[in-house]
Amino acid sequence: MHTNDIRTAYLKYFSAKGHKIVPSALLVPENDPTTLFTGSGMQPMLPFFLGEKHPLGTRVADSQKCFRSGDIEEVGDNRHTTFFEMLGNWSFGDYFKQEQIAWMWEFLTGELHIDPKRLYFTCFRGNESLGVSKDIESAELWQKLFASVKVDAKIVDFPERDGMQGGRIFYYDETKNWWSRVGTPGNMPEGEPGGPDTEMFFDFYPELGDACVPDTPHTGKFCHVNCDCGRFMEIGNNVFMQYRKTQQGFEELKQKNVDFGGGLERLWAAANNSPDVFYMDAFQHAKEELEKISGKKYGEEEKETFAMRVILDHIRAATFLIGDNVLPSNKDQGYFVRRLIRRSIRFGKELAISENFVGAVAQGFVEYYKTTYSVLGEKQTFVYKALVEEEEKFRKTLDKGLKELEGRIEKRNVTGKDAFELFSTYGFPLEMTEEIAKEKGIVIERGEFKAEFAKHQELSRTASAGKFKGGLADHSEKTTMLHTTTHLMLAGLRKYLGQDVHQAGSNITEERTRFDFTHQEKVSREILDKVEAYVNEVIAKKCSMTTEVMEKNTAKEAGVEGSFWEKYPDKVTVYTVKADDGTVYSQELCGGPHVANTGNIQGTFRIIKEEASSAGVRRIKAILE
Q: Concatenated DSSP letters for 69-95?
């Protein structure tokens, strides 16, 4: 099956089950300070797990673009990628375990025609200290589905300790079968939702019985589905988002939710019985271009194939990130784009590529994906230019770094500290320093490099501790109330200062809202008092907050307020605050949680400070008291 076939089949299947199909959100999340990137399909859905009403109802599905920066060092094997598409379906207090498990079985075995004998499943073992019991229901649901096709599916506990033991359904603890945005239950902050999950695995080598793939770094005395030997691949994860962390432990959410995420690349691998995702058709055009430039053939030599995987993954990820307006830089999201491009060039050296090649490989991805993600076609010149400029810049830096390294080699033994200085000053990869030094009989002390790097990281953390971070600190009730009042405050500012006022940034916690807006002059206390009165009037009138999904151009033409229009997808969510008499007090683009009615806002809104933020930008600090 082709990649597009699987994506289309998935969305069509869940559309038939009553799900509304929503477009992918951008790779940089809005109002989520917990992460730099959208790393899962559920991130844009978080407000709706907590009870906010989705404008399209209680059942939605999509294919979400995702990027996980933490996987950069993992890339090079046959399955890890930093960029991927996550197929997802959600129930916001609608269906639950019985429907979701049955549908996933039907999709895998019926739509993708995967042999049930190649499938394995895991469930949550439970933890009484958390007050969360063993997920026996999910295990037994899978077992009944196996029985329906006459496959005996034994349920096994502790496979990580005792092996598969002839089982098909396995219990694991919260390090494997619990999901939230921030890891295990012990790491979750108060207010964060999470829940047990049941994961789905495909067996590429059923002939091995209970054994691992031989002669791999992870071959052990027995295998199990979470083993790293390469035999099994996780292809999907059903999260039953039903709990919320509190001071006392975990409490049930008001509604039970389903959050499914399945990697499109991995579902392709299972549907085609190919353990190497880099053979999927989405990589084909770019791979052919890379083979032509390098004169090497994918799959022939192990070291060269490793380098080609890194390049293909990194350039695809950089292409999508730049398409979402993340340009190479030395900070935040841009740092990772720069790192992806520079690692690609470094691994291009492994293929003896000396000329510029990043832009040409990226064009292969643009050609393939532009029918699905039209933004890549519309911005291909912009993407190509950014990639080429970054490559040219780094190649000049590489030349300087090479001269500096050669000079240090001539003068003295090159230390780990030298290697770090080359890395921090010239962006010179440690591996390249090691390789060149090795040719001169010099071994770089990696421990010293790591120590210098750790010092650098600590300094960076200290420097950024007071940074003005955007978005919401969390999705607690108080923060949500202040988020809604911030929208009302902007509407008041526009009413009394004029329509040239727009949002320039925000940071909202449980204690206060800090809001930047475009305006040239200091705002008088008289105007601030009028804005305060405007917000408090809307709170007192108990106005409803409604949401509507519409085409971005339609919203713009209708005069909906919005900053950073370019960050939003083709379809946008418009939040409207309206009184019973039809008066509209605020109508704005947003992607965060809001109160359902302004009467739910507790306290009196008060602006306590107004000051300059930067040229042409003012800053307000306000509270609810």
A: GGGGGGBTBSS--SEEEEEEEEEESS-
Task: Tell me whether strands 249-263 and 471-472 are parallel, antiparallel or unpaired.
Answer: unpaired
Long-range CB contacts for residues 300-309, cutoff 8 Å, separation at least 24: 303/350, 304/350, 304/351, 306/76, 306/77, 306/350, 307/76, 307/347, 307/348, 307/350, 307/351, 308/278, 308/347, 308/351, 309/75, 309/76, 309/77, 309/78, 309/278
Say how far apart CA 143 and CA 120 lie, in whole Å: 10
Determine the CATH number of domain 3-277: 3.30.930.10
Alpha helix stretches (DSSP H) within 284-331: 284-294, 302-323
Q: Name the CATH superfamily housing domain 472-624.
A: Threonyl-trna Synthetase; Chain A, domain 2 (3.30.980.10)
**3-277 against 472-624: fold identical:** no
H helices, E strands: number in the chain: 18, 18
CB 124 within 8 A of CB 172: yes
Which residues make beta-bridge pairs with 92? Answer: 257
Q: What span, in angstroms and rounded, lies between the C-alpha atoms of 411 and 390?
A: 31
Residue 110 CA: distances (Å) to CA of 104, 115, 264, 305: 9, 9, 17, 34
Distance (Å) of CA 484 to CA 233, 308, 363, 574 = 43, 48, 42, 13
pTM beyond 0.85: the answer is no
What pLDDT digit, counting tens, does each position of 421-454 carry?
888 777 777 877 887 888 888 889 899 988 888 8
Euclidean distance between CA atoms 547 and 577, whole angstroms: 9
DSSP 3-state assignment of 581? coil
Beta bridge partners of 102: none
Q: What is the mean pLDDT of residues 591-599?
A: 85
pLDDT, one tens digit per residue, over 485-519 is 999 999 999 999 998 888 888 889 889 999 999 88
User: How many other C-beta atoms can be found within 10 angstroms of the C-beta atom of residue 403?
Assistant: 11
360-400 confidence digits (pLDDT tens): 999 999 999 999 999 999 999 999 999 999 999 898 888 78
Q: Which residue has the higher pLDDT, 205 or 23?
A: 205
Number of other residues whose CB lies within 10 A of the CB of residue 58: 18
**For residue 264, what pLDDT is reported?**
97
pLDDT per position as a tens digit, 234-293: 999 999 999 988 888 888 888 999 999 999 999 999 999 999 999 999 999 999 999 999
Mean pLDDT of 1-16: 97
Q: Domain ranges in the chain? A: 3-277, 283-410, 412-465, 472-624
Task: Give strand pairing partners of 572.
Answer: 550
Length reported for the chain: 625
Residue 415: helix, strand or coil by DSSP? Answer: coil
Single-letter amino acid code for the residue at 350:
E
What's the pLDDT score for residue 318? 97
Give the C-alpha separation, 454 to 448, whole Å.
10
Among 560, 581, 594, CA closest to 55? 594
CB 62, CB 88: distance < 8 Å? yes
> Alpha-carbon distance 18 to 57, whole Å?
10
Q: How far apart are CA 268 and CA 262, in angstroms?
A: 10
Percentage, residues of the chain above pLDDT 90:
59
What pLDDT is stored for residue 466 in this prediction? Answer: 37
582 is written with which tokens? Answer: 């039809």
| Better pLDDT: 105 or 573 | 105
- Give the contacts of 425 (CB within 8 A, at least 6 positions apart): 401, 404
